[in-house]
Amino acid sequence: MTLTSKVTQAARKLTGRPAPRVLSVNTAWYLTPNMIRVVFAGPELDGFPTDRDGGNCKLMIPEVDETKAHFVERLTSGPAPVRRTYTVRKFDASTQELSIDFVAHGDEGPASRWASAAKAGDFLGFAGPSTPKLTQFDADWYLVAADPSAIPVAAVALEAMPRDAKGIAIFEVTAPQDQQEIDAPEGIEMHWQVHPDPHQASTRQEDFIKSMEWPEGRVQTCIAGESGVIRSLRDFLSNEKKVPREDTYISGYWKIGLIEDQHQKAKRDGAA
Predict the structure, then answer these.
(1) In what residue span(s) does the FAD-binding FR-type domain sit (predicted)?
(2) Mean pLDDT value of segment 166-179
(3) For 211, phi and psi rounded to 5 degrees?
(4) In sequence order, what are the residues at sequence separation of 6 or more whose Cβ sits closer than 8 angstroms to the Cβ of residue 163?
(5) In 47-199, which ranges are E strands?
(6) pTM over 0.85
(7) Is the peptide bond prior to 62 cis by the omega test (within 30 degrees of 0)?
(8) Residue 40 — φ and ψ, nearest 5°?
(9) Which helix (H) or strand (E) holds 222?
(10) Which domains are present in the chain?
């Protein structure tokens, strides 16, 4: 029995939940100057669900130069690896390949640091994924907004929409070259805004959404990004535009000045 198999059995026995997968990198490249796409492949993806594009997952990041055997042992014996939340960009069942996009911001965070150096054969831990955020598309009009952290979930939503869908998508990126090709319906107006310093607060998306002509009919949203922006937009959609909660996916993915653990605690405490 391999060490990975032992970890799997131990984790199931202790928690009743599936053990983290230890995924191996197939390829990695800069999709844009500030976005890295990592594609995982291998037998560890056997049985991966085929309907989870856009779902959350937890990535467990190995230490620099850590061996796979040591990392696998840590998954059950500790100390636990650093965990970060990401989005499944695409799983291709025909090739057994899983794509995850990472915002590239150098060595500021462990996941970005790992992704910027990722090459074939590298590994990390993976738990999940959850179900996608949007699975029903029956509105008259769609509003999509995302900063770099949320482009994957927004892109999945746009690509899953009916081809006759109508609406607006507003993406905020770090540089003009960070625009991506997204297979959105022709009726979705795509807007790319440049905010070169994500450490500074931006109101570009808020200003755009609050000043645009509001459509008639039922509106469904997919909005995610920095918590300060999200808090303002959530208030606007709920209190001014009266968009029902069931039609509103809106979520703060991060907060300026906080690492993920701090941000998640702030969300639980109702401060973000």
Answers:
(1) 18-136
(2) 98
(3) -100, -10
(4) 185, 186
(5) 56-61, 82-87, 90-92, 97-103, 123-127, 141-146, 166-173, 187-194
(6) yes
(7) no
(8) -100, 150
(9) strand 219-226
(10) 3-127 (2.40.30.10), 141-268 (3.40.50.80)
